[in-house]
Amino acid sequence: MSQYVSRLGRRSAAAPARLRLHRRPRRVAMLSVHTSPLHQPGTGDAGGMNVYIVELAQRLAAIGIEVEVFTRATAGGLPPAVQLAPGVLVRHVDAGPYEGLAKEDLPAQLCAFTHGVMQAWAGHRPGHYDLVHSHYWLSGHVGWLAAQRWGVPLVHAMHTMAKVKNANLADGDSPEPAARVIGETQIVSAADRLIANTDEEAEELVRHYAADPAKVAVVHPGVNLTRFRPFPDGSDTLRSGDARTVRAARAAARERLGLPQHALIPLFAGRIQPLKAPDVLLRAVGVLLDERPELRSRIVVPVVGGPSGSGLAKPEGLQKLAARLGIADVVRFRPPVGQDQLADWFRAASVLVMPSYSESFGLVAIEAQAAGTPVLAAAVGGLPVAVRDGETGFLVQGHDPAAYARVLRDFADDPGRADRMGAAAARHARCFGWDASAAATAEVYTAALQAHRRRVRSQHG
Description:
2 domains; globular; about 450 residues; six-stranded parallel beta sheet
């Protein structure tokens, strides 16, 4: 057991269940300034954090904690509020121009966003929100002010950290600004509780930002096990750990997507930006085909996603790289897709490739494994937690394309490897259901409320 609060809610495990439930918040204000839970992951700045907020909010509502998500309006005519699910409300806040505003420009709009949040709060009775849960540093600054104004605790999830990203920059990527580093440091100090995805992230909060270890709780993100499974209709329920089942599911998905049945299909799925390193996959395929030109007739490399972040500066950069490497004929660029179709891409792939320079957890890795697909990933951030090296996939130290090419060659030479490892991956992913994540998050909320009440009592003597 680490020094941090475990994902099982160690701190309150001894308390009677009736008492814990009584002390849970009734309603949480969840803040996501720069990306809406209604946006499709893989577009713009929408990604794993969107999935995280949607799934967590729905599961919290299912256990009796209402969630109102505040996010910036990015189009005119949006309704002020949209019900995402029973007990989950998304509130659109006007802050800055609807379109064409880069994430780097959003700090200048935090005052306007905070004003919108306060307006919504002013329309309710005192005590409407019991707790603020902010996501990413921009939201953290709004949450800091809101929590103080409302007299409630602040729980913050970093998702990514500037100091960690700057220590692992991809070639050509831009470092995070000093203003973000300062902002994150302030939020870490102000928050009643900090949620980290892994023990490593918790240690980074302490090492880089001097976080109080007693305030850091480790809660692994989850995966929607109903959506991400070997067979979309659930016919694999009793046999999802069987390699033959995974092979049959892969064949069915390839038929639906019009992909060749016996090809090696290494898939990249996510935002196209230097941080995610899709270029490493393309360079690895170039190395592989230089060594084994006979594989060209039976390899397809789908890249599913859209430019994001610093990748917007060169939106055609990856296509040009494929042409320079002489592999444009085997690479298939596809726009971002909805979650159900993304699950089919995972099922169809021989292996998901994630050569990222930094990942706080890597939800995509768990989603692919839940669908029965092994993962080839960089050994960074939370990926060593998400992937069991040598069992459900492979972890590579560094970003040398030749190292990734060697693993892809082994998958090409042993087609059954994807089936065997995919079956193990599906079993492994079952440990990451969102229900467990929501229950653990609720325990963090309980601890934050209790600590906040103790602090208020001590301040008033």
